[in-house]
Amino acid sequence: MLPRHVSEACQRSGRACFLLAIEGEADAAVSAIADAVVPLGAIGRTLVLLKEAGCKDVILAGQVRRPDFRTLSLDLRGARLLPKVMTAARKGDDALLRVLGATLETEGFRLVGVRDVAGELLAPHGRLGAQGPSAQHRADIEKGVSILRALGPFDIGQAIVVCDGLVLAIEAAGGTDLMLKHCVELPEALRGTAAARRGVLVKLPKQGQEMRLDLPAIGPETVENAAQAGLAGIAVGAGVALLLDRPAIVESADRTGLFVVGLKEDEWREGAAP
Amino acid sequence: MLPRHVSEACQRSGRACFLLAIEGEADAAVSAIADAVVPLGAIGRTLVLLKEAGCKDVILAGQVRRPDFRTLSLDLRGARLLPKVMTAARKGDDALLRVLGATLETEGFRLVGVRDVAGELLAPHGRLGAQGPSAQHRADIEKGVSILRALGPFDIGQAIVVCDGLVLAIEAAGGTDLMLKHCVELPEALRGTAAARRGVLVKLPKQGQEMRLDLPAIGPETVENAAQAGLAGIAVGAGVALLLDRPAIVESADRTGLFVVGLKEDEWREGAAP
């Protein structure tokens, strides 16, 4: 959904936008409005299409599942890039994205971030809906922030669930929504319920993360999944997390009784000035 | 199953053993051979039973799910202990166990570890079955060790799954078996399969973990779950991890083609002499 939001933001600001969808990866709704659809391994063709369309700035938006490199079909340019991509892929998602970004820059494109063209998608500081975090929720948020910081050097997940001081789940390769679904499998003694909400989802950029490439994002489905997991709320980094459909997020949060709060940079980034 | 293994080890070494099972928590097979079964909140009664049986040393063995403190039925002694237990529970499992251990010591019992009475259950150094780790597996093990070390101060899980450099899962409140089951849900491009095994489960004691209380353990079902997740092997700390039924572990590993390896202390503990 992020590509659609970015495309709409470009339209609103009068910026011309060429939307290139990746075959089998982009949502059907995104492919339907795309100017072109290319297979993941067709790097050469992608570069040609972008040049023919007169693109100068490129934004990478949306999720791509890690491909199975053994079965991926590649064009010549894709094949030349493969060794670098495979090496990077072993380090983590962020390393992988950096290689793709560097290739685009070598070809003369300017890599810009979602932040640069769709700033209105960024989470503001403070609470978003009717609910706010309690002192216990704030303590859980702080613990989550500390752990995500400790994991920063490893290019792992961006999200964690902490409930009354106990870490219920840490995001890894499966992503945030899958992590929230796993929380539902835990015994109710460990977690909250719709009747007695407990625990917080904390979602932040990775330490040293290339902000132009992969900002943490939440949408109404994140709120719904957090609500299903019995959580009391969600905390994201203000100014860095993307809110995909803010009105729908607030509506979901208020309907389910969850809080959604944007943390100031000094509340989550190590060494940031308060 | 650990209590049964400990009880058998005591019998083999001619040490008298009084087996106290916790109602609704211990396996039926353990309760069946227990000398007494008590509810979790009956702390006073537990202390009386241990004293009447002439116990001097106490071993805590096996898993107890975190109780729902709001519905737990307590005797007088349990009620007096509750505030301390609840505070500790917010810090993590290890903190919780320390409080229980301290209570037993206050009552004059000596807290001993499984290691002290059943050393034959400890994992040896080196490979256990027919298979051994490759260079890529060793790199995955090293990455897993580094991340578990970084998580050490937080009293979280003891286990992680790393596959070709990518972190597939980090253990939190759900335990190792649940984490392995979650790996199966990941796309096959990210993980191994029975036909092409990739990735390693690394299981270690938490940094600063009270070794008398909660040693990491694996059994044949751990091997089966790791095999289901397409993993290539399992690495545990030699001399600290418990092997619950070593012959069955080796049989499972050899049948499924997994390696099981015990890491020397300098391979996993920060600051340990090589």
Helices and strands in order:
Two copies of one chain form a homodimer.
Chain A: H1 2-12, E1 20-22, H2 28-33, E2 36-38, H3 43-52, E3 57-58, H4 76-89, H5 93-106, E4 110-111, H6 114-117, E5 126-127, H7 135-151, E6 159-163, E7 166-170, H8 176-184, E8 200-203, E9 217-218, H9 220-228, E10 233-237, E11 242-243, H10 246-256, E12 259-263, H11 265-268
Parallel strand pairs in A: 1-2, 3-4, 8-10, 9-11, 10-12
Antiparallel strand pairs in A: 5-12, 6-7, 6-8
Summary keywords:
274 residues, 40% helix, two-stranded parallel ribbon, globular, alpha/beta, homodimer
Walk me through what this model shows:
The structure is a homodimer of 274-residue chains. With 274 residues, the first copy, chain A, is α/β, with parallel strands linked by helices. Chain A has helices at 2-12, 28-33, 43-52, 76-89, 93-106, 114-117, 135-151, 176-184, 220-228, 246-256, 265-268; strands at 20-22, 36-38, 57-58, 110-111, 126-127, 159-163, 166-170, 200-203, 217-218, 233-237, 242-243, 259-263. A 6-stranded mixed β-sheet of chain A has the order 5-12-10-8-6-7, with helices on both faces. In chain A, strands 1-2 form a two-stranded parallel ribbon. A two-stranded parallel ribbon of chain A has the order 3-4. The two termini of chain A are 34 Å apart. In chain A, 41% of the residues are buried. At the A-B interface, helix 7 and strand 7 of A face helix 7 and strand 7 of B.
Q: Could you list the spans of chain A in which at least 5 consecutive residues all have pLDDT below 50? A: none
The helicity of chain A comes to 25-40%
Q: Which chains make the largest contact?
A: A-B, 37 and 37 residues
The share of residues in extended strands of chain A comes to: 5-15%
| Assembly classification | homodimer
Radius of gyration of chain A: 19 Å
Number of helices of chain A: 11
What overall geometry of chain A do the principal axes of the alpha carbons give? Answer: globular
Overall pLDDT of chain A? 88
Overall SS class of chain A: alpha/beta
Distance from first to last alpha carbon of chain A: 34 Å
* Topology order of chain A in helix (H) and strand (E) letters: HEHEHEHHEHEHEEHEEHEEHEH
Q: What is the count of β-strands of chain A?
A: 12
